[in-house]
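#lab-general

N.A. 3:47 PM
ok so I finally got the sequence cleaned up, no stray characters, all 231 residues accounted for. can someone with queue access submit it? mine expired

B.Y. 3:52 PM
send it over

N.A. 3:53 PM
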Amino acid sequence: MVNKKIIAIIPARGGSKRIPKKNIIDLGGKPMIAWTIEAALKSRYISKVIVSTDDPEIAEISKKHGAEVPFLRNENADDHAPISLATISTLKQLGESGLSGDIVVQLMANCPLRTEKELDEAIGNFLDKKLEFQISAFKYGWMNPWWAHKLKDNGQAVPLFKEEERMMRSQDQPELYCPTGAIWIADIKELFKTKSFYGPDYSFFPMSWVQAIDIDEKEDLEMAAYFINKK
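B.Y. 4:20 PM
back already:
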């Protein structure tokens, strides 16, 4: 029995530029945000599913799919505000409305392939290990970051790592992990102190790169649609 109140917050501002109306664009026959709402509603741990948005259309669609939208976000709603601050603003507004919790699970609407299975595994790990900050991540595979370069204006390639690291056999190189917006979890009191999920001694929770897909470009959307149709 979990004796902590766990709130899921799904940040979903309007006005996305690279993919217009990204958070509510059709994906597999439903608005993208619906995949995240449904996963959160099915979680055995989460007691409330809140969509935090500044957009009335997103709010209406989110309610239709079962989420609560008690208000429109009144700050940190532009494309420059860090997502952590948007979530903190939402928690403060919830507190002013008399709603509070112990743990927040931040779920980005543009990570639609994570299901309640990955969600409950991540929350269970957070609780079992008594963590304060946990960020979902996936292990780099064929897109090996040890081979990464920057390009100068003239096209010259500049390696990011030392030659001895780059030239090792790939199976001998240390495994590297990339954070994904799929499932970020924090103790609410500690999050208020740090203003970031990257708090002291934050942990990574590895998950499949497929479930971790983070949609920012049209190619990402096409890839997510492929895996949804494959199901």
